[in-house]
Amino acid sequence: METLFLASENCSSCPIRHRAVCASCDADELTRLEAIKYYRSFEAGQPIMWSGDRMEFVASLVSGTATIERLTEDGRKQTVGLLLPSDFIGRPGRDQALYDVTAVTDVTLCCFRRNEFEKLVEDTPHIAQRMLEMALDELDAARDWMVLLGRKTAREKIASFLLLIERRTVAPGVAAMGAGSRIALPLTREAMSDYLGLTLETVSRQFSKLKADGVIRLEGKRGVIIPDVAALKAEAGDG
Amino acid sequence: METLFLASENCSSCPIRHRAVCASCDADELTRLEAIKYYRSFEAGQPIMWSGDRMEFVASLVSGTATIERLTEDGRKQTVGLLLPSDFIGRPGRDQALYDVTAVTDVTLCCFRRNEFEKLVEDTPHIAQRMLEMALDELDAARDWMVLLGRKTAREKIASFLLLIERRTVAPGVAAMGAGSRIALPLTREAMSDYLGLTLETVSRQFSKLKADGVIRLEGKRGVIIPDVAALKAEAGDG
DNA sequence: CGTCAGGTTGATTAGGATCAACACAGGTGG
DNA sequence: CCACCTGTGTTGATCCTAATCAACCTGACG
Prior knowledge:
The structure is a homodimer of 239-residue chains. By secondary structure, chain A is α+β, with helices and mostly antiparallel strands.
């Protein structure tokens, strides 16, 4: 279950205050953002936006998990982005969505009406700079994922995915030094297969193999225990 | 042969003036950029930067072609970006390169010392905005490529690549309406395989098959004639 | 209790990788 | 001028990883 987040809270107590697009805003800038924000919730499985839709808003993801996905003409699906708390949704300056965005767990968004946000970007340097920084970070992440999709084996893809979740999930700063880690997968086997460029059967088989090899342990369908994070890193195949 | 480009030319006659990072600069801003720019050339095959290197400059690619690539620990290579004239190289705000950048033809760069460029980004909104726009465009391109790498067949990958080159190469604006197109591949079979997540043998075979099927004709090693661009699009597998 | 979504496992197939031979052009040096 | 070498590309034979097709399991829920 996701943490309940009340729509009336103000920015200063926001869980993503220091990582989202507003991270480097000062008190004054925050006030301006606060004035145009509103919260929206989506239930697990619901679409947040469809490719081709007019985009009414951009948003920060406050809680939950969503995917950015794209279909080929004949229905093959590739997930091209995983959205976790603090990630940004939408593109200022574009009014047609290029991708489908889907809530995979219950999701809370902090939305900004798009045209007002665009104005704010233009005359709030801290926001423009932070947007650029986040876009460049996402570009790096996308390029890392291209290596995974183009060159890694199924086993390496699974290991890399588990490490990604571990990195983004374990309380940042709490460098759970040395030993192991316990994570909750935000995605079904099928959603993972769409992200990793595999089939769901291959994902399932690789989970079984990693478990048989003692690299991970499974707790129900969604829980994964990583007894030795370094050992898993060795399976992920990137230097 | 690449067009000869003289280092002494000023920005107003620059071939990428209206597409590069400087595209939306006014005369005044251009003067400031002009003051910190310098040209560098790299011969085909030469490294432009190595992953891990300190980045002394950022740059616009003026002429030629370069690749951004990444290696796995055991030497598998994935090209994560193709740099054509007007594309931007480097990341303001980061001082270690994350990727190898290699000139694949003779290349001319319009370089800016990094720290001076960073200052300029901070107080020249037109440059900051253009940087954001270009970063977001690259992110979209990277996501399209993720679909290609994760879900497309070898034949679809080749067709998509040919269309990419066609789009970026044929004089923009000259919407060579209707019929065919003739392109010069900037990459060897091996470099294409690194970009497409294939082996060079598979690339070669798919070229042969597309030729046998009449979708393309080959002129020497690097020339490709596309008699019917729409027919090639139908082979590329995206809606 | 039946249904259904999500997951696992097995049998078989196929698309691309790998290993290998050969073709061809351009250079280099005797 | 020719013999040789090297980089690039093509094609063939075989192998292997992951896809496909299929059966079955489990737990949640009406």
